[in-house]
Amino acid sequence: MELLINGQVRRLDVDPQMPLLWAIRENLGLTGTKFGCGVAQCGACTVHVDGKAVRSCVTPVASVAGKAVTTIEGLGSDAGLHPLQQAWIEQQVPQCGYCQSGQLMSAAALLMENPAPDDAAIDAAMRGNLCRCGMYGRIRRAIRQAAGRSTEAPASEPAVGVYEPRREKRHG
Amino acid sequence: MGKWTRRGLITAGVLAGGVFAVGVAIRPGRRQGELAPLVAGEGEAMVNDWVLIGPDNVVTAVIPHSEMGQGVHTALTQMLADELDADWSMVRIREAPAEDAYANYALGRGYILGDTRVPKSLDPTIDGLFLQVGKAMHLQITGGSNSVRNTGRVGMRVAGAAARQMLREAAAEAWGVPVQDVVAAAGRLLHPATGREATYGQFAPAAGARRPPVQPTLKRVDEFRIMGTSVPRRDIPAKVDGSARFGIDAVVEGMKYAAVVNAPVFGAVLTSVDADEVSRRPGVHAVVTLKDAVAVVADGWWQAQQAVASLRPQWSATEADSRSSEALYKQFDASMAQALEDGREERDEQVGDARGVLANAARVVEATYRVPFLAHACMEPMNATVALSDGACEVWLGSQNPLGTKHDVAAALGIAPETVRVHNHYMGGGFGRRSQNDVAIQAALIAREAGVPVKLIWSREEDIRHDHYRPAVTSRFRAGIAADGRILAWENQFVDKHEPVEAPLIPYAVANRFVHFTSSPTHVPFGPWRSVDHSQHGFFTEAFFDEVAAAVGRDPYELRRELLADKPRHLAVLDLAAGKAGWTRPREPGHGRGIALQQSFGSIVATVAEVAMVNNRPRVERVVCAVDAGYAVTPDGLSAQMESGILYGLTAALYGEISIDNGAVLQSNFHDYRVVRMDEAPVIEVHILNSGAPMGGGGEPGTPGIAPAVANAIFDATGHRIRELPISRHDFDYRVEEREA
Question: Could you report the predicted ipTM of this complex, rounded to two decimals?
Answer without folding.
Answer: 0.96
